[in-house]
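Sharing a chain and its predicted structure for anyone who wants a worked example. Both blocks are below, sequence first, tokens second.
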Amino acid sequence: MALHPVLEKVTARVIQRSRPSRGAYLAHLEAARVKGPQRGTLSCTNLAHGFAAFPANDKLVLKEVKKPSVAIVSAYNDMLSAHQPFEHFPAIIKEAVRQVGAVAQFAGGVPAMCDGVTQGQPGMELSLFSRDAIAMSTAVALSHNMFDAALYLGVCDKIVPGLLIGALHFGHLPAVFVPAGPMTSGLSNKDKAAIRQRYAKGLATREELLEGESQSYHGAGTCTFYGTANSNQMLMEVMGLHLPGAAFITPGTPLRDALTAAAAQRAALITEQGQEYIPVGHVVDEKSIINAVVGLLTTGGSTNHTLHLVAIAKAAGIVIDWDDFDELSAVVPLLARIYPNGDADVNHFHAAGGTGFVIRELLDAGLLHDDVTTILGKGLRKHCVEPFLATAGEGGVVFKDAPAASGDTKVLRGAADPFSPDGGMVLVKGNLGRAVMKVSAVKPEHRSVEAPALVFDSQEAFMAEYKAGKLDRDFVAVIRFQGPRANGMPELHALTPALANLQDAGRRVALVTDGRMSGASGKVPAAIHVSPEILAGGPLGLVRDGDIIRLDAESGTLEALVASDVWHARALATADLTPNQIGMGRELFSMFRNSVSEAEQGATTFPLPSPIQTTVGLHDAEVVGNTVPGSDEDFLINKKA
């Protein structure tokens, strides 16, 4: 199947735009490679420290410096339901790699916070920045230079992006991502949302609300709605960083453990000392990043990835922006209806055909690049399968072709009969800046709103007005000073039930904010991630109560209908942000607030790769001055410089 012309156009533009920084990245990658195991560069003292506490047989393997050593980098903690299963993974991994002659060491842990716990709390202001902290922690874990590949154990919102950003800064090492899987289905997401809306109206007690939430979030595994955590897992599959179909196998099952063992062995086999060298810096290239954007759009995934995918790409020297998302969204069909874009959860999606079905449908429609490298080698079509436990006596995992047809067309459809011809994520822009709008769950009649602005400096101020009964009217809520520089760009989920109630009551309402709503963005029209934010000179600070705001997803419009002379005569609003800077550890994150980029640039604190200036200290790469190759083809994966 020929590639869709828009996919070709956007990919070519990204390749051209990224040429200098991608070339620099690949040069850095080659410079970090060594002949033989990485630990061979260590002194005897270094190496002795690195295996001092290891079992005798594993220590012998490490001492001989011939076989690969695989790092385990884990986001385990037992408060996060999604990460609690990781407690038992290291033992499975260590035994699995021994069977292929390698050794695995627990290299380090990374922080893992739960947005569900911190939602609406001061701790949420650390959430976005935890992504870069996780990337830094990953770098610390790998900085010992003991390892020839790494397994990354993570699931949730900022954790997988942070792990991948960290992994890409060690792009010469192969990387395999190992998920834990979703919890089994409990109270439906639709019923959970209904309880939340009743509670916001004062029609349900706190005890009823807590009981409903507990029935929904009831066991080990990922939350089952299609938020950022499960969007992460989908993207790892589409980018070829998981074993096929690994994302949505529930924890505590024989298949889950078998997939973990198989992932560990695969990591050992794709090292320099294995069967085929596949470094993560070559798996993540311009085409795989575009594949990730397509995978996000076709499944109605989390808007957080309009930040995270930009940051991930940047770590690999690749530059994408919201125009790329917008152009692809116009031609990528919506193939899945998973809450909040439908009633089903991810378990239903997996049972209907899952990731293998989606990848095959998109490849056949010319909407994904097949000519990419994955952890299985060349070609994404190898991932159009689903895993099964091997029959008794064989052990391990076997892969079978994904179903030819969807098992439930209310949840999953083929590319010839999509739920929508577009991906439901649009760029809106105008005199208020640029913003992302997710419309896949917004009914057509609500996708355009023109109403007076009501300006708030926090979600708490909005909720106080709502509870006082002062918002029973048409309006556009402008929630400002929620950007990364102001307070770390928290998610504003507390607004969702209140706005949904007002919309259900027949009011024309919308939200415009420089904050986030994430994968839980639902049926109320919301222009989020408004960029630039006020602290970067953004025009959201010029809005006043009563200004008529036009938010139109169909035309891509975000503007205040204010006379030009009046608009330009205004001064940017100010606010006392001191309360956002102290307490709950927020003072420790001031360096992030002071150095973070704009939302459209990924809200990151690290720069694009720059050219290597000298050959001093390079292992094998031949790089002279500022001259760096411009594409992956300039670095043959299996060729030593």
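Comments welcome. The mean pLDDT is 90.
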